[in-house]
Design brief:
Elements (H helix, E strand, L loop, with lengths): L21 E8 L4 H18 L4 E9 L6 E8 L2 H13 L1 H9 L7 E11 L11 E8 L4 H18 L4 E9 L6 E8 L2 H12 L2 H9 L7 E10 L3
Antiparallel strand pairs: 1-3, 1-4, 2-3, 2-8, 4-6, 5-7, 5-8, 6-7
Amino acid sequence: MKKLFIICMFACWALPAAAATISVRIAFQLNGPLTELQAQVKQGNAIQNKINPGVGRELWANVIHGPNVNSASLVTYYEDMAQYAQAIANQQASSEWGEFIANFPIDRFPITYNGMSQTLVGGDSDLARGGEALVIFGFNTTAGPAGLAERVQQAVEIQSRVNPKATISMSVPTIAGDNVNGAAVFTRYPSLADWAEGGEKLAASSEWAEFIAAFPADQYSIGYQGLSEAVSLE
């Protein structure tokens, strides 16, 4: 298993095996049960698999997200902007997709966020299976994302030794409203249990402690933290 993406106020998520560089996240408020949204997304996913084969999608439910806990995010991954543009054209030409959108229960699952991000670190991964866990850190990047990307690469190297079940990626928003000076770092685990175990390993690691102590928090402050769990689309 290799990969990672997500959720959160910075519009990104785990990336599929086709080396996706663009992710589009739509966040839904849950005015109805998650299982109902899951059924709707499965239906839409089946249509998308016909009109846009090769484009991956994941559904993540928020577990620990402060006031955003009663919500979920659908993330779609594209190899590049050309594939994204072609997918939009295919959707507009599909009567089946138009009917699905017309009948989507938007009153029960209103959209609270819609944004696009570009992957800077990671991105070569498999689509998430139900039950996988995703930790999200939203950073302020007014100092520029390049320095943060270097730090994330260091974190990837350390965690490959200390916490090998974790997969790390970083994305920056390209169309994300007020979040244009932000970046999201995602750490993905096979399960919530593996996430808890990984936290214990990092807490016991002197190498990780040194990395955290040297991290330039004055340049890259954390403005958001969250934990999500993947919902099966099979």
